[in-house]
């Protein structure tokens, strides 16, 4: 059986200030084309279909379009809810939608009830484990301590119990949304830490043939049978080095797994550049980034004038500007709070200017500050006399 494993669509999410709905629609088209051209037998979507619990209307419309296009192909699709989704909202109409071959699994109590598909070699049981928020599901699974490992282990016990009652040779696929030990995170995933522990060991999933994971946005292999597809689009500059893709998985008659990466469309490459502003504007080696979405980190010791305007002249798609001034060893960076001790109002103001700009005020600026403080003191004196 051939599976297409994807996850973390995050429909409705923007990239900094860029609306990504068009790129998300392009990905859905690519997904449908891949299913048709690569003879896919089932699609699995491992959570975070939406970016938030109450998605914008345009994202819901795109999801609706995706469901119709997948149903028209006649290829079964299985989806679970992730930590960004509202399980109840995503699961509305699941029974009716299931008649069209789109199986939404958002109820934790149904972890041990699979969707069973058949190929030339027999049955394959698909178990959907939606994101399990420990505090909310610990009673359902009868665990004393609300932790990710405990609730996932309990859910997998139900999976293995159901699988053991089925005909020998039944193959199995688990969809789960979790942070599995060994996975590499990025800046765009929402933290799911509970009690200081977010990760669960991959051994929790022992006993099944393939585990289609969602949550982490980088495509990665934990073991030969446990994989993250990653998000189809980048949602932070920490993903600059990611190759966005889906897994095309062939599940053999004996449960063997062969996996191939299928690249996703890239709306625009990402680039992180760093250095003094003048060097970034002049460096010919950076020409390859002129059409990329850019995060620029400026290391000028003094904040330059109009840095974003000047950067966008060369890099018109600059989205993020970071200041990290390089200071000499004789000018260590001290906390602003530490600079306040035993300082006059004038000195505090001058220190503040130096703190945020990298250099103190010049003589003219010092005079402006002095006049401002004198005016404030004069006003206070008048008020006190008036009392």
UniProtKB/TrEMBL annotation:
Pfam families: Metallophos, SbcD_C. Coiled coil: none annotated. Residues 1-218 form the Calcineurin-like phosphoesterase domain. GO terms for molecular function: exonuclease activity. Residues 267-355 form the Nuclease SbcCD subunit D C-terminal domain. The keyword Cell membrane does not apply. Keywords: DNA recombination, DNA replication, Endonuclease, Exonuclease, Hydrolase, Nuclease. PANTHER family: COMPONENT OF ATP-DEPENDENT DSDNA EXONUCLEASE (PTHR30337), NUCLEASE SBCCD SUBUNIT D (PTHR30337:SF0). Belongs to the SbcD family. SbcCD cleaves DNA hairpin structures. These structures can inhibit DNA replication and are intermediates in certain DNA recombination reactions. The complex acts as a 3'->5' double strand exonuclease that can open hairpins. It also has a 5' single-strand endonuclease activity. Heterodimer of SbcC and SbcD. This is Nuclease SbcCD subunit D. It comes from Streptomyces cinereospinus. The lineage of its organism: Bacteria, Bacillati, Actinomycetota, Actinomycetes, Kitasatosporales. The gene is sbcD.
């Amino acid at each position: 059986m051939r599976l297409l494993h994807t996850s973390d669509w995050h429909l409705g999410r923007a990239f900094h200030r860029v609306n990504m709905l068009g790129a998300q629609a392009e990905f859905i088209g690519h997904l449908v084309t891949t299913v048709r051209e690569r003879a896919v037998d089932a699609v699995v979507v491992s959570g975070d279909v939406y970016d938030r619990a109450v998605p914008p209307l345009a994202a819901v419309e795109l999801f609706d379009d995706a469901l119709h296009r997948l149903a028209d192909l006649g290829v079964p699709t299985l989806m679970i809810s992730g930590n960004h989704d509202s399980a109840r909202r995503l699961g509305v109409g699941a029974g009716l939608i299931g008649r069209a071959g789109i199986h939404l699994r958002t109820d934790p109590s149904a972890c041990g009830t699979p969707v069973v598909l058949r190929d030339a070699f027999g049955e394959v049981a698909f178990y959907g484990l939606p994101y399990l928020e420990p505090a909310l599901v610990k009673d359902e699974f009868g665990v004393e301590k609300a932790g990710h490992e405990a609730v996932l282990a309990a859910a997998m016990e139900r999976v293995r119990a159901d699988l053991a009652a089925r005909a020998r040779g039944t193959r199995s696929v688990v969809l789960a949304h979790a942070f599995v030990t060994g996975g590499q995170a990025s800046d765009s995933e929402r933290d799911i830490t509970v009690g200081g522990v977010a990760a669960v060991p991959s051994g929790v999933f022992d006993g099944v043939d393939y585990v289609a994971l969602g949550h982490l946005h980088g495509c990665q292999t934990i073991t030969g049978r446990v994989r993250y597809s990653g998000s189809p689009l980048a949602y932070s500059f920490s993903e600059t080095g990611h190759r966005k893709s889906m897994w095309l998985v062939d599940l053999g008659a004996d449960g063997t797994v062969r996996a191939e990466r299928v690249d996703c469309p890239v709306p625009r490459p990402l680039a992180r550049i760093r250095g003094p502003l003048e060097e970034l504007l002049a460096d010919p080696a950076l020409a390859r980034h002129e059409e990329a979405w850019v995060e620029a980190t400026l290391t000028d010791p003094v904040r330059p004038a109009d840095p974003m305007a000047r950067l966008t002249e060369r890099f018109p798609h600059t989205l993020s500007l970071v200041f990290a001034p390089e200071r000499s060893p004789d000018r260590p960076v001290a906390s602003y709070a530490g600079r306040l001790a035993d300082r006059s109002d004038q000195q505090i103001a001058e220190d503040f200017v130096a703190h945020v700009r990298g250099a103190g005020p010049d003589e003219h600026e010092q005079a402006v500050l002095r006049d401002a403080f004198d005016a404030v003191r004069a006003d206070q004196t008048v008020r006190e006399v008036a009392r």
